[in-house]
Write a structure and sequence with these properties.
The chain is α/β, with parallel strands linked by helices. Helices cover about 50% and strands about 10% of the residues. It folds into 2 domains: about 160 residues, Cobalamin-binding domain (Rossmann fold, 3-Layer(aba) Sandwich); about 130 residues, no CATH class. It has a 5-stranded parallel sheet with strand order 2-1-3-4-5.
């Protein structure tokens, strides 16, 4: 049994190393380490400030944006500027979905595709909301309302974003979840949208305990699991959770993706916690999921 476990661990390490050698986006900028105030419970200002730095978009680093977009002075609709991001965050904070939608549609009609707008405008607006809390220019309630508005914005744009979706494949089924004990991340919503468009059958949005996640994996078949990890001091817990998920899974060759600022800064931790690969943004998550599935196919 020990030999089998060693062989499995060696295989996971080989897959993680192979994936890490593929072209990856650059390391995440500091501004992406913000908090997701969605569904947040009572927190002290210190605790919430820490959350603001780690939870809003842990997987969605803006690695594909054109340099200097954040400081762009361009006044054309095809250029996403810092002013656009700030304006969208303010519209979301005021729960003005109509204005937020009009802003996105203006850039869309000017030629920017929705995938870029999700990564370069909507995602950074969520980050901006976290910064507004951190700078004490928005209340906790306003941040929560703002994130909910951005989520409705993505839902409203869904039919257009998914009009060219590949047909979902039951063999390409993935469960996305925050690490048990952590809150839902806005980034998972974006990642789920990109995966669905690529033909993945995605289960996302559940905030479950470890036992509940294990029960779900035992009851339903998934090719991959993607865990969003926000807390930087829970490496042992992450490793234990991944081991439990693998043991419970109906799929004995379950692939595990992880994401979060901790892994982006320390890729070697991917193997340490027993995962197969890491993703640092929505596009990267699709590429890693596709590669990992290909590697696991012979074992399945």
């Amino acid at each position: 049994m020990a030999a089998v476990q060693d062989s499995q661990a060696s295989g996971r390490a080989d897959r993680a190393n192979a994936l890490s050698r593929q072209r990856r986006p650059p390391a995440p900028p500091a501004m992406a380490n913000s908090a997701d105030a969605d569904h947040a419970g009572p927190l002290s200002r210190t605790g919430l400030a820490t959350a603001v730095e780690t939870r809003v978009v842990p997987w969605m680093v803006l690695a594909h944006r054109t340099p200097n977009h954040a400081g762009c002075c361009c006044d054309t609709a095809s250029c996403v500027s810092a002013a656009d991001i700030a304006a969208l965050a303010d519209e979301a904070r005021r729960n003005d979905l109509a204005a937020a939608l009009a802003r996105v549609e203006c850039h869309w009609r000017a030629g920017l595709p929705l995938d870029r707008l999700y990564l370069e405008l909507v995602g950074p607006a969520a980050v901006q909301l976290g910064q507004m809390w951190h700078e004490d220019t928005a209340s906790m309630a306003e941040v929560t309302v703002g994130l909910a508005c951005l989520q409705r914005l993505i839902h409203t744009l869904g039919p257009a974003f998914h009009q060219d979706d590949l047909r979902p494949d039951p063999k390409r089924r993935i469960l996305l979840a925050p690490m048990p004990g952590e809150q839902h991340s806005f980034a998972l919503i974006i990642i789920a949208e990109f995966l669905r468009r690529a033909g993945w059958d995605v289960d996302c949005g559940r905030v479950l305990s470890l036992s509940a996640l294990c029960a779900l994996l035992k009851r339903e078949w998934f090719a991959l699991v993607g865990l969003s990890v926000s807390c930087t001091g829970r490496i042992d817990a992450v490793g234990g959770a991944i081991h439990a998920l693998r043991a419970a899974s109906r799929n004995r060759s379950l692939g595990v993706l992880v994401g979060g600022p901790l892994f982006a800064a320390n890729p070697d931790l991917v193997v340490q916690v027993g995962a197969d690969a890491m993703a640092i943004d929505a596009r990267h998550a699709v590429a890693q999921a596709e590669s990992l599935l290909s590697m696991l196919a012979p074992a399945s």
